[in-house]
Amino acid sequence: MTYPVILTIVLMPVVLLGLATVLTWVERRLLGLWQDRHGPDRVGPGGMLQAVADGTKILFKQDWVPPFADRGVFVAAPAIGMMAVLLSFAVIPVTAHAGIAGDMNVGLLFILGMMGVGVYAVVLAGWSSNSKYALLGGMRAAAQMISYEVFMGLSLLGVVMMTGSFSLRDIVAAQAGLWFIVPQCLGFGVFMLAGIAETHRLPFDLPEGENELGAGFHTEYSGMKFGMFFIAEYAGIVLVSCLVTTLYLGGWRGPWLPAGVWFALKTCGVVVFFILLRASLPRPRYDQLMALGWKVLLPLSLFNVMATGTILMLRASL
Amino acid sequence: MLDTLRTLFLTALHAFHRRATVRYPEQKPYLPPRYRGRIILSRDPDGAERCVACSLCAVACPVDCISLQKTEADGRWYPEYFRINFSRCIFCGLCEEACPTYAIQLTPDFEMGEYARSSLVYEKEDLLISGTGKYPDYSFYAVAGIPVPGKARGMAERERPPVDLHSLLP
Ligand code: SF4
Ligand code: SF4
């Protein structure tokens, strides 16, 4: 291992955790902006230190494990969620050279696998909490995330077929001429929807739907364990945004500016779009969510795979 | 699908709308003169306390947060002590309506935060102001029929002299 890679390995979690923490503030400011309010703007310049204040507060909160909970699993669940998200970042190529393992030949599969592990965090949290709301949230999470993982994988197939590689760096390299958002617009749409569902963000946050489930799968969590779920969720948003950038928006490619800046800009754009979705769309009913998945997104992504395959074959035979 | 995109667009446009928030500590909201806030006890135009310790306000108060004791001096009634527990007061204004002398009045001030609950119990010295409040010219004893030192029966404003029952003249 070379020296810069080790440095990146050490720095990446620190930067990511900081980013996810700041994102909680950014989201609240942006929501305020779109709801004719100001949002948190008191702590520090423009309220920037709000995240620090919240973090400090949550560190000093009582870290309570309910006596009826399954202690071991209860404690492990947030750690699993955090770990799965952080590990996924290892294969994200920030630029042509930066990143930890951007060349990994199964990069995309690794990310899908890590998202599969992320489901465990939510389901185990809901199960080990041993309370009704948490269990309902966990059940919803299991159904939602497992079914949306199917479409997510299928929608990515188009990109993989066009590149002929699972390595994320190869995928970006293949977008030299045209970003994949144009030929793969169907896949892009499905991937966006599936990404929101995977990170259980509004409008698809049924596992933690406040109005009917309290806080869903993390109802019984408090203190820093809750904080870990929270931060993992925001890191998940960053992850999905990075993926969208890498897979469909040409990754670090762009004129004039350095590669890393382009990557950061595109990722920020997608993150802001995620927040805009939260600000404007209502939450669907649970059966509507499942119906949308299996009746619309599944056929769409299958069609996308078929169409991409057909065109690729025709082009090869010409 | 189009509806959703339109929703997104319209929501994004809200970034350019006027903020609805009143930034309170820096920017004070307008409070009308009859806003029901901190309670005061006012004085006559000539500087005497208006309150005559009739206890009507204490009776009217729905949460029983006014407590007072009557005493007499110079031929008229005063409250010996007058205590309002603002941690119970609901600022309904019924005391002001009940008061026959305009002594007790609610003012447009609500910044009464305290760290200790007991500091919210206001004594007469805390309540009494030096001015007349909302009714600058009103003086209870000048219009009331009750005799006090310096003003006999029949000498109040718009009051006729008492009828002499022993006289047959019209
Ligand atoms: S405002 Fe209402 S609650 Fe407060 S002292 Fe007067 S009557 Fe009582
Ligand atoms: S404040 Fe008014 S109602 Fe209350 S005791 Fe004094 S005179 Fe009577």
From TrEMBL, chain A:
GO terms, biological process: aerobic respiration
Membrane topology: Multi-pass membrane protein
Record PROSITE patterns: COMPLEX1_ND1_1, COMPLEX1_ND1_2
Domain of life: Bacteria
Keyword Cell membrane: yes
Gene Ontology CC: one annotated term: plasma membrane
Record's subcellular location: Cell membrane; Membrane
Catalysis performed (reactions): a quinone + NADH + 5 H(+)(in) = a quinol + NAD(+) + 4 H(+)(out)
Molecular function terms, GO-annotated: NADH dehydrogenase activity; oxidoreductase activity, acting on NAD(P)H, quinone or similar compound as acceptor; quinone binding
Record-listed E.C. numbers: 7.1.1.-
UniProt xrefs under Pfam families: NADHdh
Subunit structure: NDH-1 is composed of 14 different subunits. Subunits NuoA, H, J, K, L, M, N constitute the membrane sector of the complex.
Family stated for the protein in its record: Belongs to the complex I subunit 1 family.
HAMAP family: NDH1_NuoH
Name this protein carries in UniProt: NADH-quinone oxidoreductase subunit H
Source species: Komagataeibacter intermedius AF2
Taxonomic lineage: Bacteria, Pseudomonadati, Pseudomonadota, Alphaproteobacteria, Acetobacterales
UniProtKB/TrEMBL annotation, chain B:
Catalytic activity: a quinone + NADH + 5 H(+)(in) = a quinol + NAD(+) + 4 H(+)(out)
Entry GO MF terms: 4 iron, 4 sulfur cluster binding; iron ion binding; NADH dehydrogenase (quinone) (non-electrogenic) activity; quinone binding
UniProt-listed SUPFAM superfamilies: 4Fe-4S ferredoxins
Assigned keywords, A-Z: 4Fe-4S, Cell membrane, Iron, Iron-sulfur, Membrane, Metal-binding, NAD, Quinone, Repeat, Translocase, Ubiquinone
Domain of life, per lineage: Bacteria
Broad enzyme group: translocase
EC number of the protein: 7.1.1.-
Comment on bound cofactor: Binds 2 [4Fe-4S] clusters per subunit.
Cofactors required: [4Fe-4S] cluster
Subcellular location per the Swiss-Prot or TrEMBL entry: Cell inner membrane; Cell membrane
Keyword match Cytoplasm: no
Binding positions for [4Fe-4S] cluster 1 per the UniProt entry: C51, C54, C57, C99
NCBIfam families: NuoI (TIGR01971), PRK05888.1-1 (NF004536)
Family recorded in the similarity comment: Belongs to the complex I 23 kDa subunit family.
Function: NDH-1 shuttles electrons from NADH, via FMN and iron-sulfur (Fe-S) centers, to quinones in the respiratory chain. The immediate electron acceptor for the enzyme in this species is believed to be ubiquinone. Couples the redox reaction to proton translocation (for every two electrons transferred, four hydrogen ions are translocated across the cytoplasmic membrane), and thus conserves the redox energy in a proton gradient.
Subunit comment: NDH-1 is composed of 14 different subunits. Subunits NuoA, H, J, K, L, M, N constitute the membrane sector of the complex.
Protein name (record): NADH-quinone oxidoreductase subunit I
Gene (name only): nuoI
